[in-house]
Design brief:
239 residues; alpha+beta; seven-stranded mixed beta sheet; 7 helices; Arc Repressor Mutant, subunit A
Amino acid sequence: MNTRTRQDAIVRSLRRTGTSTVAELAAEVGASRRTILRDLSALRDEGFVIHSEPGRGGGLQLDPQSVQTTTRLSIAEVFALLISVASMRAAGSLPFSGLADAGLAKIEKALPPDKLRGLRRFLDCLYVGQLSPKVDISNLGAMDPALLPAFESAFLNQLHLRFRYRDAKGVMTSREVEPQAMLILPPLWYLVAWDPAREDFRHFRMDRISQPEIIDGFPFQRRHVPFEDHVRPIRDFSR
């Protein structure tokens, strides 16, 4: 369990139980007492009001009205929210769009400058279009949760990406590519990448990608991707 996940678990536990001890929290999240004390200090720094009552019958209590005052969302998490809203708008099905936009605007406003710059660069790599009715989607699978965090690093730092890919016939191969764009053709999502081995662009269905791995080394150069006329940047749908 990483730091952020552990701290989120601590907040949920305190909200759920009302009162808890350091020992109980340590047992629940599988961490040491010293780690829990550091987490509690970090949570207080972020704006959570956590009371500590010593002695028998005491313990830790989270103020019911307590909220964090600084954003803890990663670029990938904010990106996932933005593209979910934008892709639904592109498909013409976004109820309560005004509230969604207002909430996203507040999140973006709370982001530190470096995260905001990264988010905008990430969005510049995303495109939306229409899927041809001839495409077979009967075998559509789930996407690996590790994809978006790996894409974040690969796109923002322009690093090569290695992954396992299962083609339409079920054959698995190992690919090493230069990620250039992400393309949403609802309900399919594609990674558009330059394949050095084939010296050409390739479209990889994201539900067929597994075990993504960043390759450290020299960054590659961004290339102009020749999209079809119906494909547009997602920024056109973001507001």
